[in-house]
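User: Quick sanity check before I run a bigger batch. Here is a single chain. Can you write out its predicted 3D structure?
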Amino acid sequence: MSESFDRLVRLREVVKLLSISRANVYRLMKIGKFPRSTKLTERTVVWRLSELEAWIQEKSAGQKTSK
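Assistant: Done. Predicted structure follows.
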Protein backbone atom coordinates (compact mmCIF):
# COMPACT_ATOMS: atom_id res chain seq x y z
CA MET A 1 0.00 0.00 0.00
CA SER A 2 1.25 3.46 -0.86
CA GLU A 3 2.26 5.85 1.92
CA SER A 4 0.34 8.61 0.18
CA PHE A 5 -2.99 6.87 0.86
CA ASP A 6 -5.42 9.32 2.40
CA ARG A 7 -7.80 7.61 4.78
CA LEU A 8 -11.49 8.30 4.27
CA VAL A 9 -13.74 8.81 7.28
CA ARG A 10 -17.51 8.65 7.51
CA LEU A 11 -19.76 11.11 9.29
CA ARG A 12 -19.95 9.10 12.51
CA GLU A 13 -16.17 9.22 12.85
CA VAL A 14 -16.00 12.93 11.92
CA VAL A 15 -18.50 13.73 14.67
CA LYS A 16 -16.57 11.64 17.19
CA LEU A 17 -13.17 12.98 16.13
CA LEU A 18 -14.18 16.65 16.33
CA SER A 19 -16.79 16.46 19.12
CA ILE A 20 -19.34 18.41 17.09
CA SER A 21 -22.84 17.44 16.02
CA ARG A 22 -23.90 16.18 12.60
CA ALA A 23 -25.95 19.34 12.16
CA ASN A 24 -22.90 21.48 12.90
CA VAL A 25 -20.83 19.60 10.31
CA TYR A 26 -23.40 20.29 7.60
CA ARG A 27 -24.01 23.87 8.74
CA LEU A 28 -20.30 24.65 8.58
CA MET A 29 -20.04 22.98 5.16
CA LYS A 30 -22.94 25.05 3.86
CA ILE A 31 -21.25 28.33 4.79
CA GLY A 32 -17.87 27.18 3.44
CA LYS A 33 -16.10 26.83 6.77
CA PHE A 34 -15.61 23.05 6.76
CA PRO A 35 -14.09 20.63 4.24
CA ARG A 36 -16.55 19.33 1.66
CA SER A 37 -17.58 15.70 1.75
CA THR A 38 -17.28 13.28 -1.16
CA LYS A 39 -20.21 11.07 -2.10
CA LEU A 40 -19.05 7.48 -2.58
CA THR A 41 -22.42 5.84 -3.09
CA GLU A 42 -26.05 6.86 -2.92
CA ARG A 43 -25.99 6.65 0.90
CA THR A 44 -22.32 7.05 1.79
CA VAL A 45 -20.39 10.30 2.17
CA VAL A 46 -16.81 10.55 3.38
CA TRP A 47 -14.17 13.14 4.20
CA ARG A 48 -10.43 12.90 3.63
CA LEU A 49 -8.68 12.63 6.98
CA SER A 50 -5.88 14.90 5.76
CA GLU A 51 -8.39 17.68 5.02
CA LEU A 52 -9.92 17.33 8.48
CA GLU A 53 -6.47 17.44 10.09
CA ALA A 54 -5.61 20.58 8.09
CA TRP A 55 -8.90 22.18 9.20
CA ILE A 56 -8.09 21.38 12.84
CA GLN A 57 -4.59 22.88 12.46
CA GLU A 58 -6.07 26.01 10.86
CA LYS A 59 -8.56 26.41 13.71
CA SER A 60 -5.94 25.93 16.42
CA ALA A 61 -3.51 28.33 14.68
CA GLY A 62 -6.27 30.95 14.54
CA GLN A 63 -6.88 30.62 18.26
CA LYS A 64 -3.20 31.09 19.08
CA THR A 65 -2.92 34.31 17.07
CA SER A 66 -6.11 35.84 18.43
CA LYS A 67 -4.96 35.71 22.09
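The two ends are 42 Å apart (CA to CA).

User: Great, the batch can go ahead then.
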